[in-house]
Amino acid sequence: MAKYERDESYVELDHVEVDGVDISGHWNRMYQPREITAFTPEKIEELAALSGAESIAYCYQCAKCVGVCPVDAAGGDYGPRKIYRRLQTGLNIFDSPDLWKCTTCQNCVRVCPKGVDMVQIMPAARERSVLDGKVPPELQEMFEHVAEYGNPMGESPRKRERWIKQAGVEVPILAKTKAPVDILWFVGDFYAYHKRGQDAAGAMARVFSRLGIDFGILGKDERSDGDSQRLAGEPGLFESVAEHNIQEFQKYEFNRIVVSGPHALNAIKTQYPKLGGQFEVEHYTQLLAPKLDALGPLLTKSFDRKVTFHDPCYLGRHHGEYDAPRKLLTAVPGLQLTEMFRCKEQGYCCGGGGGGMWLDGFMADQVSERLSEKRVREAVEVGAEVLAVCCPYEVSRFEDAVKSTGNDGALEVLDIIEILDGCME
Fold first, then answer.
1. Which of 189, 209, 277, 417 has the smallest set of CB atoms within 10 Å of its CB?
2. CATH number of 154-289: 3.40.50.1860, 2.60.40.10, 3.20.20.140, 3.40.50.1240?
3. Residue 354 pLDDT greater than 90, yes or no
4. Around Cβ 150, how many Cβ atoms within 10 Å?
5. Rounded to an integer, what distance in angstroms lies between the CA atom of residue 164 and that of residue 160?
6. Which pLDDT score is estimated for 13?
7. SS3 category, 212
8. pTM, to two decimals
9. Lowest pLDDT segment from 28-37, 222-231, 370-379
10. 294-422 belongs to which CATH class?
11. Which H or E run includes 237?
């Protein structure tokens, strides 16, 4: 790799006076003009030639992105400007760990004056690396599970409905009822399969039931939303599960789709239309926040605890929704909401986006602490007793981080829907 060496030659006059001011010595030092010959454009051009990655060439190294990059803040020595600089000196991004660190959180895009878009650049570069067979093993395993089973956990599709038994209310499965519904609830992988996700899924079903919401689910016919697979460089796998879900959606009559997670929102709202799937879709907090007149009287139990809220990147920065989760939290009796320093547009990332949910082993060698651990420390610093979330990835990520940071017993992680459910009689 080429290395830039600074030319220290300069001219310094022994005696010089300007407008009566003596600037003799280093005050009048002028460095000799120099040509930068150690930098090369080839690697930048190679990356920018990929469809979607063109904007990497727009970078003019102002470094605004580095200050807001969550990976850099966690000791990852990262950011678009740093990648651009390394490309200048010969970095092969397709063989570099830098390819997999980005969580596509969009915070760098928010501040970039040139429109360098890592949310487009990194998936494009990853796709080429995946095609070349250069994939971190844990990510490759996730791809294989989704291809074979339709979910990243590698669980049987037949188990996707099992959480219903613990919900305590009727959960209509559209393939069985055949009836039109107002809401098609896209449950998602983590709500369906992960133990803590199942807790939130049961809570959601109970809240829907108490509010009289007319809903149904796909059950075993649902597949992963595919957004993480697309962002991690597997657009073909994304199309496979997306086309399956679109075909299932089109079998039934409903007015809108409500999703449990921000990544499903992103996939169905922005990507499914490209495959012929046009649907009205919203996150569950967006469904419930306008229903506070009906929901409020049902919240009869007080939640006398100090709560802070973590903005999911794909609900906040990607889709501009900051108010709905907070409206639900502030409607809970006794709940005291306090904000972390980094919140809303400047919110920090949990580390699970862009395929990061399946790269914890890989990232352990790339950062000084996990992004989720840093976020837990920020929650503790504001005196929170509960870290509230509304993304299926985040309950398990933050619960692990609570334990690894030594805050077990001091901070509880709850999905907003769990708080609402727990405050109902």
1. 209
2. 3.40.50.1860
3. yes
4. 23
5. 9
6. 82
7. coil
8. 0.90
9. 28-37
10. alpha beta
11. helix 235-249
